[in-house]
Write a structure and sequence with these properties.
8 helices, 4-stranded antiparallel sheet, about 230 residues, two-stranded antiparallel ribbon, binds iron/sulfur cluster
Amino acid sequence: MDVFDRSFLDRMKAGLDIDLAGAVAVGDTGSPELKRRVSPLMPTARSVVVFAKEIYQEVVGLLRPSSEAGQAHGGDLLPMHTEYLNGRLNRGVHELAAYFRQLGYRSLPLPAIAPTDQRFLEGLLSYKHVAELTGMGRIGWHSMLITGQFGPRVRLACVVTEAPVEPSPSSPGGSCTGCGACIESCPAKALEVPGNGMAYSMNKFSCRTYRQAGLTCSVCMKVCDEALTAGQRA
Ligand code: SF4
Ligand code: SF4
């Protein structure tokens, strides 16, 4: 049986116009939580592959917590930009799944926008947690993945597959400094300092309510990106 090694994933990443790629094994040696979440989707799964696309800093830099009535707002470019990135990711996970399927491995592409139970805001599979397991980054106080290369500015999608893909090594960088900028800037007061052992403390319903009022937010992403970038310069 083939094992798809790191160079395979790098080739796929380049060929599919993907910015970051990682893989994690699903099995007895891996994360029990991952196995619990993946088994209902595919009991025979051996690996989950995560793809990421960079959200441009030029777009994120235009985000504001609020805008004046009647003023066009540059931050409103984010949804259109995200739609484009989601399209690239969706193509990527479908192409990879198709490749594995041709070789006889059952494979399930999971799109950039995962089906979500809107009552509890629980997604089918938490891509950021899978990405953390692949070593792509760490989850920060704003609940998003922080990568070494792009900070929190990434969109994610996954492939669950029977194909044995070599697990990725941890990559350097990409962690929350605990600066608190995301908490201070959140207009919905949806974020708090997490308790011991918790990666984040977020009232996702407050966040959703704020954004459902028709406001493009993600200000937590913007201030985090700025804080991390300033830290690299310091
Ligand atoms: S996206 Fe949500 S959590 Fe982030 S700053 Fe806006 S309201 Fe707060
Ligand atoms: S803004 Fe600061 S505290 Fe918030 S996630 Fe980023 S590094 Fe962590």
